[in-house]
Amino acid sequence: MAKILFLHPYAESDFGRQSIPLSLIFTLLKKNGHDCELFDTTFLDNEILRGERPNHDMELKKLKFFKNWDNNFFSKNKKGDVTSLFQSKIDQFKPDLITFSFWGSHLHAEGEYFSYDNGLKIIDNVEIDPKTKIIVGGTIPSSNPNEVLKKNPIINYVIKGESELVYLDIANALDQNKDLNKIDNLCYINNDELLENKLRPLIDPLDALPDVEMSMFENNSFFRPYHGNIVRMADFELSRGCWYRCTFCLSPFQREVTYKKAKNFRREKSIKKIIREISNLKKNLKLDYIRYQDESFNSIKEDKLRELSIEYKKHVNLPFIIEATINTSSENKIKYLSEMGCVSVGLGVESGSERIRKEIIKKPPFSNEQAIDVIKCYRKHGISVTAYNIIGFPSETEEEIWETINLNYKSKPSFSTVSFFQPWEGTALKKTSLEDGSLNEKYLSDYFSPGQQGDSILNLDTIKNSDLKHYHDNFQKYVKYPKFSYKFLKKIL
Q1: Where does the pLDDT of residue 448 fall: very low under 50, low under 70, confident under 90, or very high at 90 and above?
Q2: CATH number assigned to the domain covering 3-196
Q3: pLDDT at position 52, please?
Q4: Could you tell me the CATH superfamily of domain 207-492?
């Protein structure tokens, strides 16, 4: 039996979120007789991790406006700082392997970034037996294992690609005192040279994986603020993979670079497995909601979605949240989602400029009129819509930002969010940003720098950074008014 210590670092906020790949790996190893423990930093004193981000107390003050608020939900319920407690855990457990950062859904690249970066901060501040292996994975380390390994010699291996079955191979090898260097998907340094082992095939069908369990996470991890209430919510994946080639997204790297355009890159669980897994999670965790982490939920075929809707309503009947694309959102699918219990959808609008969508970010084609119709259709069927917008793309102009604002004004989603474009490592648009000279040298010094927090990290020839920040900070005000008013609004905001 191998002893595996999973590190789940504070990622996007002080509120718990579950890592689906961590859950699956943990479950798989436990079922195969290995000794697994989780060190979760979510409710610890996280000053070493938080840096300049909003502090815990300020986050809590905001949440007091939510219904059924309870101070115990998100309180720092453990004494001591992260590093001292983690050191104690290592000394007590004596793991054969410590691991963090996993290949999973990449709807939120910043979540994976913070998981990796904060994991490093913790590891660097504790003493670890040299015999203990340190392994990381995820898209960001996978995209540049050479730099990750050489920059952080404490890391022994990077796992490239899907990792559940790789971890089982690693645990079995550790248990049998076998060399890890021949295990598929592992990257490591030997005599200052990067060695990359071959990739094992993608897991297909997904039903081959065990039913996910989440009992390893603290009970408080399932409380989240949602639409004015504090609810119990868990993350879940129905499918893996996305067929599209959006240049700002990590998914094309996964498919086209890592797996060489694998024909089975997008896979779906059977309806039977979906119903069984969610039913168990609902019962065991006393859930109010499910949040699907699928990169393109609506890529599911219409007939399967209709059948899933019937079975889900009959056996689960739990409201849920999805992410979807405009081009796959037919009225029939929206109708089935509504009947199934979908209460909210996040739609990747990204830009109101058809040039930006087509030529720069290469989204699957849709017109502004189609986006307006789809958003209105979701709302007609009682589903809240959050429109995701991004500004600051290479070559983007002020006029094109106004087009994005105007599209949100015309379509009237329930909520509109905006973020600065981020050239994540492994994305095609990072390469473009480097080639056109717009990528800030500060970012180049450390490509894991969290620039998305407060400002654009690009220097664009087409718009001043001060103007870009103005539209970012005032986006919610602009979307309330028609386009003819934008120049006037800019003068008074």
Answers
A1: very low
A2: 3.40.50.2300
A3: 44
A4: tm_1862 like domain (3.80.30.20)
Sort 261 into a burial class: Cβ within 10 Å, 0-12 / 13-18 / 19+. exposed
Q: Which two tokens stand for residue 326?
A: 């405009």
Residues in the chain: 493
> pLDDT (tens digit, 9 = 90+) per residue, 341-399?
999 999 999 999 999 999 999 999 999 999 999 999 999 999 999 999 999 999 999 99
Tell me the pTM.
Answer: 0.91
Whole-angstrom distance, CA of residue 366 vs CA of residue 371: 7
Q: How many helices (H) and strands (E) does the chain have?
A: 20, 16
pLDDT digits (tens, 9 = 90+) for 14-63: 566 788 889 999 999 999 999 999 998 877 766 666 554 445 555 666 66
- Note whether 3-196 and 207-492 share their fold: no
Asked if 297 and 238 count as a contact pair (C-beta separation under 8 A), the reply is yes
Residue type, 487: K
Residue 360 three-state SS? helix
* Cβ proximity of 100 and 136 under 8 Å: yes
Q: Give 412-429 pLDDT, tens digit per residue.
A: 999 999 999 988 878 899
Yes or no: say if 187 and 158 are a contact pair by the CB < 8 Å rule: yes
Kindly tell me the burial class for residue 62, based on how many C-beta atoms sit within 10 Å of its own C-beta (0-12, 13-18, 19 or more). Answer: exposed
How crowded is residue 144: how many other Cβ atoms within 10 Å of its Cβ? 17
For 119, other C-beta atoms within 10 Å of its C-beta total 25
3 state SS of 73: coil
Nearest 5 degrees, angle CA 80-CA 13-CA 100?
70
Domain ranges of the chain: 3-196, 207-492
Closest CA to 328 of 366, 294, 355: 366
Residues 6 or more apart whose CB falls under 8 angstroms from that of 446 comprise: none
Q: Which of 400, 389, 390, 396 is nearest to 432 (CA)?
A: 396
Among candidate residues 101, 87, 133, the one with its CA nearest the CA of residue 21: 101
CB 307 within 8 A of CB 277: no
Cα 189 from chain centroid (whole Å): 28
Phi, psi angles (nearest 5°) of residue 223: -85, 130
